[in-house]
Design brief:
By secondary structure, the chain is α/β, with parallel strands linked by helices. Helix content is 46%, strand content 12%. A 6-stranded parallel β-sheet has the order 3-2-1-4-5-6, sandwiched between helices. It is an enzyme of class 3 (hydrolase).
Length: 221
């Protein structure tokens, strides 16, 4: 038994295509309109400033969107992109355009952990608002009550750096943490921070055939 289970989403709880195809395709045409329609939103203003700083682009919305689309095409985990995507997805879930689909083994495992007293948290490159919206609108209903914390690259840091996992451990107030992910590099970073790790090698996913050693590996939760 472990005190905390921290979970990745993409490729671990939900198919990668759910993010890279369904969610990306939903966000892509809405980025420009969202920027233009929310000029007074502090999160949007900050994201726009970060895009300009990171890209050096000083033009209007069309130029900013071109940068964002380039990051999406390269699957870059860039904070302002994740912020804007998260806001768009949040609205999409709220209005019923989007419904999150999880692997069949996920919800039973989450409920079993929760019922056994294991505390659950999420660490994903997707923004915290996007995570909350995702788990609040799944094919299995609202799962947000199962989770006690959400972490992203803003409040924790990059997923492949050990210091990010140390920051999370400090927030959780525990060194008894097990991390589940489909990405070996993330598991290496978590292990360096002193966490227990479990590789999730799902058939058909991008890392399904990866080398997960020395981490314990499962094909389902």
């Amino acid at each position: 038994m472990t005190e905390w289970v921290v979970l990745d989403i993409e490729g671990t709880l939900s198919a990668t295509d759910q993010v890279l195809v369904v969610l990306y395709d939903y966000a892509r045409p809405r980025l420009g309109p969202w920027i233009d329609e929310h000029p007074d939103d502090p999160a949007v203003r900050e994201a726009v400033a970060q895009i300009r700083e990171l890209s050096g682009v000083d033009g209007g919305t069309e130029e900013l969107v071109a940068v964002l689309h380039g990051w999406m095409d390269a699957d870059r985990k860039v904070t302002p992109l994740k912020t804007l995507q998260g806001l768009i997805w949040q609205r999409g879930y709220e209005v019923g355009d989007l419904v999150a689909e999880l692997f069949p083994d996920v919800v039973p495992a989450l409920r079993e952990w929760h019922d056994d007293g294991v505390k659950l948290a999420v660490f994903s490159s997707g923004s915290v608002p996007g995570q909350v919206a995702f788990f609040g609108h799944t094919t299995e209903g609202d799962l947000t009550p199962l989770f006690e914390h959400h972490f992203d690259t803003v409040n924790a840091g990059p997923k492949r750096e050990a210091d990010s996992y140390r920051r999370i451990a400090a927030v959780l107030g525990s060194d008894d943490i097990t991390f589940y992910s489909d990405v070996p590099a993330e598991l290496h970073a978590a292990a360096e921070a002193g966490w227990r790790t479990v590789g999730v090698a799902r058939p058909g996913e991008p890392y399904g055939d990866a080398d997960f050693s020395p981490h314990r590996t499962v094909s389902a939760l």
